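Trying the structure run again after the queue cleared.
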Amino acid sequence: MKYRVGVDCGGTFTDLVMMDEKGRVSVAKSSSTPQDPSVAVESVIKKSGIDLKDVTFFSHGATVGANTVIQNKGVKTAIVTTKGFRDILELRRGQRVLDRPTDMYNLQMDLPQDYVGGYSPLVERPYRFEIPERLDHRGNVVKTLDEEAVRLVAGEIRDKGVESVAVCYYFGFVNPVHEQRTREILEELLPGIPISLSSEVLPIIREYERLSTTTINAYVMPIMRAYLQNLRNKLNDLGYQKAYYVMQSGGGIMSSDKAGLRPVYTIDSGPAGGVTAAADLGRKLGYPDVISFDMGGTTAKVCVIRGGKPEVTTNFWIDGKYFVGAPVMDMVEIGAGGGSMAWIDSAGAVHVGPQSAGADPGPACYNRGGTEPTVTDADLVLGYINADYFLGGDMSVDVEASGAAIKEKIADRLGMGISEAAHGIYRLINANMLGAMRIVTVQRGYDPRDFSLLVSGGTAAVHAVRMAQELHIPRVICPLSPGTFSAYGLITADARYDVYRSYVFLTSQADPGVMQGIYDDLKKEAEGEIEKLGFKSEEIKRQYAIDMRYSGQAHEVAMEIPPDMMQGKMDRSSIQKLEAMFHERHKSLFGHASPEGGVEFITLSVAAIGPIEKEEMYEIEESSEDPEHALKGVRQVFFEDFKGYGDCNTYDRYALKANNVIRGPAIVEQMDTTIVVPPRQRARVDRFGNIIMDVTP
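Done. C-alpha cells:
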C-alpha cells in the first residue's frame, strides 16, 4: 500500500495525515517543538508507525517564517536601494491606525517604537545602503547604476557580518536590469550570501510594499533554507528519498527547493492548508460557499470561501507590523485558542486571550507548570472535554487543576462558582470569535445565512454550534479529522506558482498588444516552474487575474479573468470587457460604481496550477439512524438550557456509521477533537463520515 502524507506544524501540536490508495485516512498528533519544528515532524512520523519508504508524496506546512519575523529572530540582513530611499522601510505608509489607533489624529504622535509591542524595522539604519541609480516610471534609465558604489557597499556588508541581502531599486519592477547587475557584483564579492531581488520576489508597484516583502524574504531565507535542508535530511534518514513540497500562504504547494528561494510565499503556510481543505471538502459535499473556522491551541482563523474558491489577499501584516505583499489566504486571525488565558484587568473586567499558554507550559490541566486558566480548562470543567480521553487517551490532563486555576484566578475574585466562571470564559471566547466572523462576512457584504460553517482545529467543534446560532448560519460541517484538517489540506492541494508584473495605465491609453505580451511572458514563466515539478504542459491549468482601480484611488480591486477571455489575443474589446467587469465588481464590494470615471490597470498576474492526483473520499459503512452502537456512556455536561449540569450521551466518532443521527444534547469524542451537539440540535453522519449539523436558532 502506498501513501500520501501531510505534516502541519502548529503552535501547540504537530499533525500528520496519511491517505492510502483507497482514500482511507489515518492521523497522528505530537506536541510541537518551536525551537526546532523538524523534531516534532520526526516525532509524529515515528508515532504514526508509517514506513516512509511506502510514501509517494510528502507535503509540509510550517510556521517557521512567521515565527522568525514575529520573534525578530531572522538573520542579520542588509538592504541595497536607490539613493534617497534608505528610510522607506521605517517610514512605511503613515497608516496610524496600524500603529496606535488612539493616535490617528494626533499630530504630535511619538514614533511607534516607544510603546510595548511597537514597531522596529527588521533592518536597522546602519544596514541600509544607498546606490546612485535611477529609472523612470516606464523603465528607461535616467541615471546609470554606479557599479563602483555597489562594490564599496559590498565591502561594508562583508565587514558588518551580514548574512542576507535585499535589493530593491525604485522602479525596479518595470525594468530589472540594475537589480540584476547589482546581484552579479554582490555574488562576485560576497560568495555564499543569499540575495533577494524585488524584481523577482514581488515585481509590482508601490515601493514600501515591494521593499518590505523583499526584506522579509531575505530576513528569513537562510533560516528557512537551513530548516528545509534539516527536514530533508531527517526524511532521508527515515527512508523518504524523494522531493517534498511546502504549502504556500495563498494556497497551492511548491517544491521545498523553491520555498527556500521564496520563503515569503510560505509565511502563513499552515493555516492555508486548512482553508484549502475546507474549500475542497465543501465542493465535494455540494456546499461551495463556506466559512472556514479553524480554532487550535493558540489562535482562531476565519476565512470566507465562495464558489469553492477561498478569498486571497496581497495586503497582509505579520503581527500587525510587517507587510507582506505575496498572496495570503484572506483570513482574520485572533488570539483565541484552547490555550488562550482568562484574566482580569485592573478595572475588574474579564478577558480571554490573546495571551496563550501555548504547548509549554500549556493549560493548567497539563500539569506542566501552567497556573493560568485557559479555554481548555474551562471546557474541561464544563464537561465538554473528557479528561480521560484527551488526545484519544494518549495525554493525561487534570480537571481538578483546571477547576483550581479558574477558582483562584477568576471565580473567587468575582464572587461566583467555578462552573459559572468557566461558562463565562466559554461565552467570552465565543464572542471574540464571532467578532472575527462578522469582519469576514457582514462587514464585507456577505450574509452568513448563505454559508455553511466548516470547522477544523482541535477546539472549533466545541464552540461551533453556539456561534452558528448567533449568526444564523444554517449548518455546521465537521470533517472526519478536524483536529488535523490543515495537514489534510496539504495532501489535497495542487501545485501552484504565481507571477506578477505591474502595468500602470489608464484603460483608455493601455496597449492591448503590450498587455498580451506581458501575460504571455508571465504564463511562460509560471508554466516553466510547474513543469520543473514533472507536470506536462497539457496538464497545467492557468488562472489569469488583474488589479484595477478608479483613477485617483489609493487601492485597487483584484479580479479573476474568465478563461474564455484569454483564448485569443487581447484587443480594445477585451479592455472594454475588463472595464465592465471592474465596475460590476466594485459595486458588489462597495455598493457603488462610477462607469463615467477613469479606470486604471495596475497589476497583471498569472497562476500556473499543476493538478495533484487526488484519491476519492472513502465511504464508510452504512447503518440506520440509531447510533446506539457508538454510545460510550452518559456524563454530566453544563448547558445553558439546563441552567447547569445535566445528563449527556457521549458517542465514539470512530464507531459511527453513515446515516446515524445524533440528537442533542450529545458529545461526540475522537482523538483529535470533541464535537458538542447542544440541546435541540440534530447531527447526521454522511456517507464519508462527516458530521453535518442542521442548526436550530
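Residues 76-216 form one domain. Worth checking whether this holds up in the mutant runs.
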